Amino acid sequence: MNTRMSNAPIFAVALALAYLAGCDSTTLRLSASPMVPAAQGTVRVSSGKNGNTRLQIEVEHLAKPEAVADDAKVYLAWVSTGEGTPQSIGELKVSRALAGNLETLTPARYFDLMITAEASAAVRSPQGPKVLSTRVSR
Question: Cys-Cys with 67: which of 9, 25, 63, 76 at CB 3.0–4.6 Å?
Answer without folding.
Answer: 63
